[in-house]
Amino acid sequence: MNDEKIIDRINADYIGEPGNRRFYIVVSKKSDDYLLWIEKDQLISLGRACSKLLSDHINKIEKSGQHADNTIELPDNPDLEMNVIRIGVDYLTASNRIVVIFDDQESIENGESPKLRIEIERKLIHNFINQTRELSASGRPTCPLCHEVVDENGNCNFCPKKNGHSKDADIPKLI
Fold first, then answer.
1. H runs (alpha helix) in 57-171
2. Model-level pTM?
3. Domains, the chain, ranges and CATH?
């Protein structure tokens, strides 16, 4: 397990084309870079959880006059590279920071959880939340009922929330 880290930078992005994207988070602390490969749904959920934690612990309306560095590059030789399996999020009231823990399959199997623990200051988390929202909106559209990705014609086949009415599904005849 890596020691507690108050990070200097956190950014999210993807590589690839819609439908074949791979999402990642780059975390930096001084000279250490961490590359975290993450599923799109995990990334969106992380952004929402951070936003909810901030709204639950807001004392006053904050105006973010300082914009974080949005330049994102994959580190050539990251100090840690992992495929994220599990994420945990909490808020430290005393230090006014969000804590995020990340686990990969190996750390879970070996009982070495968390693999990475970071603390994010409020000035950085606002930018990260905005990045997750932009990445969510930039992908392929989803069905408003079941939230599955729609095809190129805007149709969602076999949507369970359409009450089972699908023109594509054959209904077996009763004997």
1. 105-109, 122-138
2. 0.73
3. 5-139 (3.30.2450), 140-175 (no CATH)
